[in-house]
Structures are given as structure tokens and as C-alpha cells.
User: What shape does this take?
Amino acid sequence: MSYVETEEQQMLRKQVSEIGRKYGQKYYADKCRAGEPPKELWDEVARHGFIGVNTPEEYGGGGLGIYELQIVGEELAAAGCPLLLLLVSPAICATVIARFGTDTQKEHWLPKLASGEMTMAFAITEPDAGSNSHRIATEGSRDGNDWLISGTKYYISGADDADAILVVARTGGAKGGRARLSLFIVDGKAPGLDKALIPMQLPGPDRQFTLFFDKVRVGGDRLLGNEGQGLSQIFVGLNPERILGAALANGSARYAIEAAARYAKERAVWGKPIATHQGIAHPMAQAKIEVELARLMTMKAAWLFDQGQDAGEAANMAKYAAAEACLAAIDNAIQVHGGNGMSEEYGIALLWGMARTLRIAPVSREMILNFVAQHSLGLPKSY
Ligand SMILES: Cc1cc2nc3c(=O)[nH]c(=O)nc-3n(C[C@H](O)[C@H](O)[C@H](O)COP(=O)(O)OP(=O)(O)OC[C@H]3O[C@@H](n4cnc5c(N)ncnc54)[C@H](O)[C@@H]3O)c2cc1C
Assistant: This one.
């Protein structure tokens, strides 16, 4: 692994950053307030081939890796536009389809996901199961060659706009016991699928939905991978999702630190810029160090994943470190801005909602600590 990115990676950073900055934080903030997906930005990023940067070339993608996709996520966030759906459509769905799909499934889904023509949501979380995926109750049962899916999922991002949804369902295992899980691709407008908007208190551009599946029929060609092996298969997508979550946090932290440094150099209340006070400068320097550490772990996790190595520990650590560093950086940036930190004009406080979400999702801080305690330290399972 080199700490100097290739020319191609540096060029990717520059090009994505230029697109992100063309739209900028104000565009993103307007979309958040309107509760509208940032479609124009998504489409432009897709037109340049950056949504599909990690999709194999033979299916219309860039043929690069999760490292490059996390560059896309970080640079857009650093421009003030953290795109939550990058975690889902290209990071989870395209990765899992590319790895486990049949040739026909790959030919059908991947080119449209790569071009941005289509988005795919991802549904694993359930009201009763929460962080415990073994308790998933949404059921897939055979009906001839088809499957019928019934159950409830919640906090499904962008489900209103998604052309399809990758659904994790139970296809075996004793009721109340460990589920045997399988993956299904369900049409976004399938008969029997109802969506209810979850009103959120903090504004974000992508809306969240509860999904009700009432005997939703899918053909046998919508089973992705092997029946009953959904849990191990989905982890191939969950590590990229965590890496992308980390990348969004890293980018948002960079945005906040840059804004704070700019403001601190300009704002003078005692006859000299506030940046000259160490009480202002040191927390910014500390935030910068913590974000750079988080970026290193994010890059390591992406590199491991792209090398086909086990990226689980690094992806968890990266998501943890990045979310914590990002929250601290944003909190400090608000403080540096004084009252202006809370204003629409300066756009800092709005970042907090996404950053705070990244401490909970796609996997919570506590579940990461559980993972590290158990798997890295060999401590007994506590739950
Ligand atoms: C904005 C947003 C977007 C989301 N998008 C999606 C999406 O697109 N698709 C999707 O499937 N899901 C999505 N989610 C759901 C998200 O992944 C879950 O909210 C998250 O995994 C936590 O699950 P939960 O909310 O059920 O919390 P719970 O599992 O109920 O946990 C509640 C609290 O208890 C803690 N806890 C739980 N178990 C333990 C334990 N064993 N030890 C210690 N602490 C524990 C948790 O860390 C948490 O702090 C989204 C959530 C949000 C907020």
C-alpha cells in the first residue's frame, strides 16, 4: 500500500471535488430543507462514471474498487454534499450483485446502477430485530418457482425513489431462533409493497421509509446468491457500506474544519483574528489530526477490501473513528463560528444531522465496540 495516491486517484479526487463544489453546501441544504433527493448532483456524478466507479468494466462501470468509491464519497462530502445513497446503491447493492449475481442478473442490474439510471435501496433493519439480524422476521416463502415476501422493514433510505430494493429475508430457521437469511431484489413499485414516510427531526435530502411487504411476489430470478446464505453474502456489501459511511464522515469533517479555519482567520473581535487565540487554534488542530487518523483507517479498510482480504475489523474501526472525529470537528466548527455556527448562512449546524446519523448507522457505535471487544480482543460476548 502506498500513502501517495496514483495519478488516476488524484485526478478522480479533483474531478469529483469540482462537481461537488459546483453544487456546494447551499444546494445540499436546500434539498435537505425541501426533503428532496439531490438528483441533479447524483445524475451529474453518474454521467461522469463516478457512481459506477467500482462496478466491473464489462458491466459498464469503471472497473476500479471501493477505494475509488470512497474517494467519490469523501470529496462530495468535503464539498458540503454527503450523499447517503452512495452507501447503498453502489457500495452494497452493486458489490453484492457483482459478487453473487448470475450472469443474467449482472447484465440486467449492474449497467443501470453504474450509469445512475437506476438506484437500488437496501432493506435489512426491522422494527423488532434492530441490530440483531438473526431475529429478522420478514419472510420469504416459496410459491412454485416464485417467492412471496411478507414483513416490515424500517429506516429504508431513498425507498420512494428507488427502482428496486435489495431485501434481506428469513427463508428458514426456527421461529424466534437464528434466521437462515436470503437476499431478494424486489421492484420498487411491486404490488403488495407499501411505503410510509418516517418523519425525521433533523433534515436530510434522502427520506426514510417503513416498508410493508404483504405477500410481495418475486420470480425465482430475484433470489440473489444462494438460498440461506444471505448473511455471509450481505457482509460482502456491509463492509463497503461501512467504508463509505466513514468516507462521508471524513469528508464532512474536512468541510467543517476548512470552514472553521477560514472563519477564524477572518473574524476579529479583539483587534486581531480569533485564530490567533490558542483556545481556537488548538481544537481545530486536534480535529485535523483525528480526521487524518480516521482517513488512514478508512483507506486501509478500502485497500484490504479491494485486495480480497478480510476488511471487517478495519471497516468497523474506520466507521467508528470517522464518525467520532466528524462529530467532534463539526461541534468545534460550530463553536468557532459563535452564533453564526447555528445560522443557515454559514451552513455548519446542518452538517450535524448526517454526522450524528453516522454514529448510529449503518452500524451503531456500540455494535462496533462489541465486534472489537469480541473479535479483536477475544473478550466474551456480552449479549
Ligand atoms: C438516517 C438513517 C438511515 C438509515 N438507512 C437504512 C437503510 O437504508 N437500510 C436499512 O436497512 N437500515 C437503515 N437504517 C437503520 C440503521 O442501520 C439502524 O438504525 C442501526 O443499525 C441501529 O439499529 P436500531 O435503530 O434498530 O437500533 P437498536 O438495535 O434498537 O439499538 C438501540 C441502541 O441500543 C444499542 N445496542 C443494541 N444492541 C446492543 C448490544 N448488544 N450491546 C450494546 N448496545 C447495543 C445500539 O447501539 C443503539 O445505541 C438507517 C437509520 C437511519 C437513522
Observations:
- The mean pLDDT is 96.
- The first helix runs from residue 7 to 34.
- Residues 88, 121-125, 130-131, 155-157, 208, 357, 360-364, 366-367, 370, 383 surround flavin-adenine dinucleotide (CB under 6 Å).
